[in-house]
Amino acid sequence: MKVPYSWIKEFLDIEIPADKVAEKLNTTGIEAVSYKFGQYIPGLTTVKVLSVKKHPEKERLLITKVTDGKKEYQVITADQNIKEGQVVILAKTGAKLPNREIKPVTFGNIQSQGMFVSLQELGIEESSEGIFVLDEDTPIGIDASKLLGLGEEDIIEIEITPNRADVLSVKGLAREIGAIFDIKRKEKYPIVSIMQEIIPQIQLKTEKTYRYRGVIIKNIEVTQSPLNIRLRLIKAGQKPINNIVDATNYILLQEGQPLHAFDLDKIQGQIIVRQAKDGETITTLDREERKLKKTDIVIADEEKPIAIAGIIGGENTKVDQNTKNILLEAAVFDSISIRKTAKRLAVSTESSYRFERGVDIENLPNAQDKAVELILKTTQGKAVGEKDIYPKPYTPKLIHLREKTVLKVLGEVILKEESKEILERLEIPTEITDEGTVSTIPAFRKFDLEREIDLVEEVGRLKGFDNFAPSYPKLSLEGFKKSEEFKFEVQARDFLRANGLTEVVNYTFVGEQIYKTLGIEPPKIRIVNYLLKSQSIMRDNLAVSLIQTFQENIKYQNKDISIFEISSAFFPKHEEIRIGILVHGNIIKGYKYTQGENQFSTSVTWDFLKLKGLIESYIHSLGIFDILYKKTNIPYLHPFHSAQIDIQNQNIGYIGKIHPEKAQKLEIPENTYVAELKLRYIPRDLKEEPLKKGYLYTLYKQKDTVIFKELPKYPSVKRDLAFLVDENLELDKLIKALKESSKLIDKVELFDVYFVENGKKSIAFSVEFRASDRSLSDEEVNQEVENIIKQLQKSFKGLTLRV
Amino acid sequence: MGLKEELLTLKEEITKNLEKASNIQTLEEVRTQFLGKKGRLKHILKTLGKLSPEERKEIGKLANSIKEYIEQQIKEKENILKNLLLQEKLQKEKVDITLPSFWLDIGASHPVISTLVEISEIFLSMGFSIEEGPEIEFEEYNFDMLNIPKDHPARDMQDTFFLNNGMLLRTHTSPVQIRTMLKRNPPIAMIAPGRVYRKDADPTHSPMFHQIEGLMIDKDITFKDLKGILKIFLENVFGKDIPIRFRPSYFPFTEPSAEVDIGCTVCKGKGCRVCKGTGWLEILGCGMVDPNVFKAVDIDPEEYTGFAFGLGIERITMLKYQIGDIRILFENNMNFNNQFKGLR
Ligand SMILES: [Zn+2]
Questions:
Q1: Contact call for residues A347 and A312 (beta carbons, < 8 A)
Q2: Nearest CA of chain B to the CA of A414: how many Å?
Q3: Based on the domain organization, do B223 and B301 belong to the same domain?
Q4: Residue B275's beta-bridge partner residues?
Q5: Is there a single domain that holds both residue B148 and residue B65?
Q6: Rounded to two decimals, what is the model's pTM?
Q7: Chain B partners of A470 at a C-beta cutoff of 8 Å?
Q8: Which of A417, A509, B216, B338 is exposed most, by the fewest CB atoms within 10 A?
Q9: What kind and span of H or E run contains B340?
Q10: What is the 3-state secondary structure (H, E, C) of A102-118?
């Protein structure tokens, strides 16, 4: 809200500079800035139009003669509304407007000595419909910049938090400033006489309207508002319309009370304030036809709705140039109802904005009378009747503020006398009691001052939070709790970075397309009011994001990639913290080096086994060693180059190469590998236990501790054993069988695998034999090897020992 | 020529030969030639028997001293040659120590996560615990129980993403307060770092961002304690002399509420583009837990008080690293990410 400082001064005798006021407002809870209205422009003068005639050649141009009282000027304008007798602003040759400098110009051989300006050209309005016309009695030949207050008038712009509806007016802001600087607020009450000749016929048929007062004013004339009113509105950021509408807007800004004027002659019979009927329609002042619901409040006559209550008026009863009689409405409607309707219809007006936050019900007649007074100052006419329906008059709430509560919350001793003084500066009548104070909450603060704590805040903020010295609480160890989950993730992150992977943070929502391309079902949880369709699905795996990150990086020409993300995947009843990894290309990008026998190439490229090794190494770092790999059928992975990772028969993730067909569709290289590990289970239901099966953290928490084994006392005997086996045999099984085949086997190490012809492969192991109670003899070991081969041949058909 | 002369000639000869020996092999030849089983010294000594006992004694003594001398000489020469050999070997093995290295380089940290971890650890070390909750939340925990009733303008402060399952993406980490208070009794000192979501996207707003929520509840927690804790925190992140101010503000779940500003880290308070000329940067929101929140979770506000605060991690990250556009944080362009290798 923008407020000219001079307007505030009508309510306060204050000489403090505007910037100081703004600064203080900030530190007591209202965000405020101050600045000057526009910029001073030299060379602007007020002139009277003496004559207007058509340009002989240029069809759309008018030639005018104007005077500043001393000198006549010939000015050419395209504004068709210019009329003899008007006083307008002339920017003389040499005047520097924000966007241009005025130079003498000729239009079809006729020279123009300057230009009439609009507010837009002065830089104080976004867009203007035409040149700015002053009042006819405005003195001519004076500095128009000064007249408008350009570069001179202080504007204070504030932004309020939703609880401070009471500051949404010039008067309310003045009240706040008065409290801050301890200056008593003043007010000039309206002097109007409203006859009781024609009483408005009003029926209140909804409980959602708390007060409704109508005043009939007859025999008015709709004209332009006087300059001072128009300037105030302009400086407050509003467009003047006509004297009637301007008066309602002016009072709305000044008092915070929304008002509406109906053309009385367009109303059929009585005014009925009621709930709308479902499907009922009204064309509003912005020329939109709007469909109503029964939850909306409307102002209606006996035939039709004539306004959407508290939000916007109807076109059908609009005040226009021919209006002679009006019904001036002032009301208070239910905040929630107004808010719902405004939201649904997507209309926000100065009026709805205030009703949503709360309007001072007690100030209603005062504000409305000020509007009547203002209208009758701008036109002849007569207020002939008034009706005020106020079923439940405001009964103020009494709130006690105890000294001990102030101390308990703020930690500062503030005596009750001081609290009383502060609250009374805020125009909240307050008395001293034994324990503290008791305040009578005025209607303008009934929205945010409901409890003792709310008064604590008032006292605290006016005293100034910065005036309280910090203190340091004694932390009660009773509440101490280890935060292992956090450390678990930090460690994972440190491990992965130490292994050369870079951390990324992706949005957790994705589009449908990536799921389609990968050939997997998109998840069901969707954002209803998404910003972008490509950010509307809550992902159920991290691969969808990591793949897109890779695609983007290919565009940035980053072809080698080693990335990870520790983040969430979403499911109907729970969420999962996962590690997602995507790698492609070089882990180490090196160079070839040859110096005699000294020769090396330093590049190392990602492949399945390296990524598998990295993941194993991470799992080992958690003290978990029994990892099983099983064939998996994840559609976006290579069917024979991917695996699911199992620990204790629980699937905790997968690893694999992107399916070549998908890689092609995704326009990413074929040798791209992804992996996901399920770290933790996050339930949504408060009662559900997060240590679920199938998560690394759970396994980590439940694993057995390491128990030290005695070191071997006797030496081992080594044998190299090479087997010929079927080429499809999974090595894992052979290794396991070999290890279990003899109690004397201490260690088995694979050292050679090669595929020979005729469907066989050769597998060579180095096997270490050891007994815990004696040294083994060669004969004993030879005997054991024979036994082992016999055993293996039983389980693996066609296995032979190579010699 | 007598034996004595023969021995002395031998000594001279050997000395010459030793000088000439240029490698271990020739040195070895010299050794066998003079000292070996069939060597010349042995040969001379064989004739010793022909001499009288006196002469034998004298010549024997001389022969021994010459032998010792020669052995000594050979050893020295050997050492010299071995050293030469070693030097040669070392020379051969020389490496250009300025060659690019060959090892895995550390991966980069994401600056937002790095900041999140740093801040979390400050609070951890002060004795706060870390709590968490789901990102898909119940409206009740995200709004209602935090004293943000339906159809209250306060809900407009946070533009919410609603989901087709009737839930929403949490708009702040505050529902974790509620979850924690429902699970545990005071005293509570917790923080909740995490992802949050708002329907907003421009250079300073991202639809997904990170927050840390803090909550401390006990029998005597005051607004001044809140100031103390936040002072420690801000000084640890921004340095000991950072100016701090508390401005009264409004949040539905705290009363009184305040917004905390720090002196602009870019212009040191003189006023610049980053601080919009004010010299101050808004850094976090905080306040005393509203009694309505306590009532919602069944904690007696007459017995307990507490404070809560919430801060946006991206904002602090952007200030720390002078990043102007929030969106670059989530583009994951390696050219950006890899600038942060040195972060924890
Ligand atoms: Zn600055």
A1: yes
A2: 13
A3: yes
A4: none
A5: no
A6: 0.86
A7: 224-225, 227-228, 231
A8: A417
A9: none
A10: CCCEEECCEEECCEECC
